[in-house]
């Protein structure tokens, strides 16, 4: 028992250290990205002539994403589609790339931060949920009592 | 493909080229996979799921094969992840595997001890406290849908956790599933210290008489049908979960479908479990799994299990204030869905305190009520969050 506990604690520690490392890497990458975008915006504000020197990609990055042709609202970042497509195993490299893009989109990077914005909703759901479970289970218990009393033939 | 001499640097480079594709997350995920396999084999912790998940975690974190395209450039080719993705989309993204597994689980459960002592159903309800409390706590760090999905780890029920987190489109299905199944397997380690902390020795020694009331076949047959209808009226989102569970139980209890019942309990459940474990591994790609959020989810999962136990024990204590026939508070802790681990744990704890105190049938009744309660709680969460 003790061994298992130690094992689990070690496991959690390893995961936590690695997660923190990953988090630190992500943060430094975001920081450097932010610094470079700051620099490029300073260059573009200096003179209008410099606009021509900004690479096409960076201009594209700043443009709002195009609305899908079918007119459907875009899914929020990091959320998979509710209706999954079933890929074919023998797919072409193009379809493989597409599915890879989909995966990246599906997982996404979700920022972890402390917020009390959802507290009220969660508290309401907590109260309603507990009450709901109690009511349904209480009702089931009542039905079972009635069934036990009314059904005649025993096993 | 150009011809290369057998012994040249280029040939050797081709042989070892995938070593350069190894990213730091990969060996870490191999280690996690190895730990899951170790826990499954050596510690016998939910081996049917932890072993496939552990192997799948290794499988998903190997370099992607490369191939030359028409222009002669190296591009990523089809890898094992495409096969697992196909299984994922076919069986988990649409919640098919967990629901089919519920037929098998329903066919395995004997609700007899619960039907002969229906007040045990209340413990099942109280032991879902961890779900909702964890949901509330998780809402400080995650959006509502992810928080609710994390809270459902407290259902102590893998298929329910998968269905709810998938239906809510959670970003953390992999971590939630791993936490749910790992903690289910760790019930014998998690529950005893929590119970000892919140009960006195005197309370743990309370003896409970077991006088099972005979349960008619009519009751056994009507029970799954009535539960499905009630779940449909109060928590329609839980109908798929409750319905499949109760369908399995109806097959068991009807008495005319013994072959189907046996198939559901054995072949069907085994086959789905086999695919479920390895398919879940699709969500265990290192770069997505090794995040601070994963650690927080593991912590919140443990928190959920602890407060499930607290909820069940506290209800028993409250009932003892008003009841002449005292209930051993440990039985309340068996109201979680981890069946039959939790009931066995409580039974063993009871024997440890008093070798003549047999709590198995009481704790089994509370435990099977936890099965029903967790599924209903999952449905209620879906209904509340999805509006």
Question: Can you walk me through this structure?
Answer:
The complex is a heterodimer of chains A (155) and B (387). Helix content of chain A is 64%, strand content 0%. Chain A is mainly α and 155 residues long. Chain A is elongated and about 95 Å long. Chain A starts with a helix and ends in a 5-residue tail after the last helix. The relative contact order of chain A is 0.04. Chain B has 387 residues and is mainly α. Chain B has one domain (20-62, 79-386). Chain B is built from 21 helices and two strands. Chain B has helices at 9-16, 25-41, 47-59, 80-91, 96-108, 112-115, 121-126, 129-138, 144-151, 158-167, 173-185, 187-198, 201-204, 217-234, 239-254, 258-280, 286-289, 292-322, 329-333, 341-353, 360-386, and strands at residues 66-68, 74-76. In chain B, strands 1-2 form a two-stranded antiparallel ribbon. In chain B, helix 3 runs parallel beside helix 16 (258-280) and helix 10 packs antiparallel against helix 11 (173-185). The longest helix of chain B has 31 residues, at 292-322. Chains A and B meet through helix 1, helix 3 and helix 4 of A and helix 2, helix 4, helix 7, helix 8 and helix 9 of B.
Major β-sheet strand ordering of chain B? 1-2
Q: Helix fraction of chain A?
A: 55-70%
Helix-strand pattern of chain A: HHHH
Average predicted confidence as pLDDT of chain A: 57
Give the amount of beta strand of chain A, in percent.
Answer: under 5%
Which structural category do the helix and sheet elements of chain B fall into? mainly alpha
The span between the termini of chain B is 58 Å
Rg of chain B (CA only): 23 Å
Q: List low-pLDDT spans of chain A.
A: 18-23, 42-108
Number of strands of chain B: 2
Give the radius of gyration of chain A. 27 Å
Question: Helix and strand succession of chain B?
Answer: HHHEEHHHHHHHHHHHHHHHHHH
């Amino acid at each position: 028992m003790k061994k298992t506990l130690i094992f689990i604690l070690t496991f959690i520690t390893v995961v936590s250290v690695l997660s923190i490392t990953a988090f630190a890497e992500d943060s430094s990458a975001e920081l450097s990205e932010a610094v470079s975008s700051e620099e490029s915006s300073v260059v573009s504000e200096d003179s209008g002539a410099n606009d021509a020197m900004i690479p096409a990609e960076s201009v594209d990055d700043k443009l709002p994403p195009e609305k899908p042709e079918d007119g459907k609202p875009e899914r929020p970042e990091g959320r998979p589609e509710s209706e999954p497509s079933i890929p074919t195993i023998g797919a072409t490299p193009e379809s493989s790339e597409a599915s890879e893009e989909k995966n990246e989109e599906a997982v996404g990077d979700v920022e972890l931060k402390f917020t009390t914005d959802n507290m009220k909703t969660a508290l309401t759901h907590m109260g309603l949920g507990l009450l709901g479970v109690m009511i349904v289970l209480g009702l089931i218990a009542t039905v079972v009592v009635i069934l036990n009393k009314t059904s005649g033939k025993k096993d | 493909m150009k011809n290369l001499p057998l012994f040249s640097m280029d040939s050797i480079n081709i042989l070892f080229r995938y070593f350069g594709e190894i990213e730091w997350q990969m060996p870490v995920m191999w280690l996690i996979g190895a730990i899951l396999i170790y826990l499954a084999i050596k510690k016998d912790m939910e081996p049917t799921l932890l072993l496939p998940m552990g192997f799948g975690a290794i499988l998903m974190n190997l370099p992607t094969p490369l191939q030359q395209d028409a222009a002669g450039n190296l591009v990523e080719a089809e890898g094992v992840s495409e096969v697992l993705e196909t299984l994922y989309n076919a069986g988990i993204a649409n919640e098919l595997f967990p629901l089919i597994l519920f037929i098998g689980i329903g066919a395995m459960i004997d609700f007899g001890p619960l039907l002969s002592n229906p007040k045990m159903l209340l413990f099942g309800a109280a032991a879902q406290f961890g779900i909702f409390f964890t949901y509330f706590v998780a809402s400080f760090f995650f959006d509502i849908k992810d928080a609710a999905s994390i809270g459902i780890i407290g259902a102590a029920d893998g298929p329910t956790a998968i269905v709810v987190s998938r239906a809510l489109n959670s970003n953390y299905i992999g971590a939630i599933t791993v936490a749910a199944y790992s903690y289910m397997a760790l019930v014998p380690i998690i529950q005893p210290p929590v119970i000892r902390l919140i009960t006195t020795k005197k309370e743990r020694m309370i003896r409970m008489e077991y006088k099972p009331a005979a349960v008619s076949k009519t009751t056994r047959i009507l029970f799954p049908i009535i539960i499905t209808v009630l779940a449909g009226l109060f928590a329609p989102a839980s109908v798929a979960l409750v319905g499949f569970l109760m369908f399995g139980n109806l097959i068991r209890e009807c008495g005319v479908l013994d072959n189907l019942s046996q198939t559901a309990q054995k072949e069907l459940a085994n086959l789905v479990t086999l695919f479920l474990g390895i398919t879940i591994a699709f969500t265990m790609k290192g770069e997505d799994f090794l995040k601070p959020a994963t650690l927080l989810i593991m912590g919140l999962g443990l928190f959920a299990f602890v407060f499930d136990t607290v909820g069940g024990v506290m209800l028993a204590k409250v009932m003892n204030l008003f009841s002449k026939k005292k209930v051993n508070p440990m039985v309340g802790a068996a109201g979680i869905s981890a069946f039959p681990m939790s009931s066995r744990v409580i039974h063993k704890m009871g024997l440890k305190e008093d070798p003549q105190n047999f709590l198995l049938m009481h704790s089994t009744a509370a435990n099977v009520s936890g099965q029903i309660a967790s599924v209903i709680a999952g449905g209620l969460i879906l209904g509340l969050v999805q509006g």
